[in-house]
Design brief:
2 domains, 27% strand, single chain, elongated, alpha+beta, Alpha-Beta Plaits, four-stranded antiparallel β-sheet
Length: 140
């Protein structure tokens, strides 16, 4: 975890008998189909080998939670941002999860192409008041 409480990386341990290339390939294909981001790797301890996998690019949208006008927070809803991002990314990516920190709320999105997702979201981010001063960061 990062100092602010946001998840910075994740390890998943899978135990299976008889490590082999075929089993490693099946595991990495399964995890890739479950939105494994680029940069993921499967570490086979018994063989002292790492196998890179993952095909999805990640986009984090950080909504400013402290510096906007009071009426923006009163009149706008982060759930609407979540729903609208989901709608706009249909066929291109998905909103996978979120994180709420002390100063920002992050929406994590994964798809095949970061730039295409960013382009699809930009008009909405420029017009919806709660998205003022937001940050968009490529996370995978």
């Amino acid at each position: 975890m990062a100092a602010n409480g946001e998840i910075s990386e994740c390890d998943i341990e899978i135990e299976f008998d008889g490590p082999s290339d075929a089993r490693a390939e099946a595991i990495s294909e399964t995890l890739t189909s479950m939105l494994a981001p680029k940069g993921s790797s499967l570490h086979l301890l018994d063989l002292d080998r790492r196998i890179p996998f993952g095909a999805h690019e990640g986009l984090a949208l950080y909504l400013n939670g402290t510096d906007l006008a009071d009426e923006v927070y009163r009149d706008c809803d982060s759930n609407y941002v979540y729903a609208e991002c989901s709608r706009l990314l249909e066929g291109l990516g998905i909103v996978s999860s979120h994180w709420q920190g002390p100063h920002e709320t992050a929406l994590y999105m994964y798809g095949w192409d970061f730039k295409a997702m960013q382009e699809r979201l930009t008009p909405f981010l420029q017009e919806y008041p709660l998205c003022q001063q937001c940050r968009v960061v490529q996370i995978a």
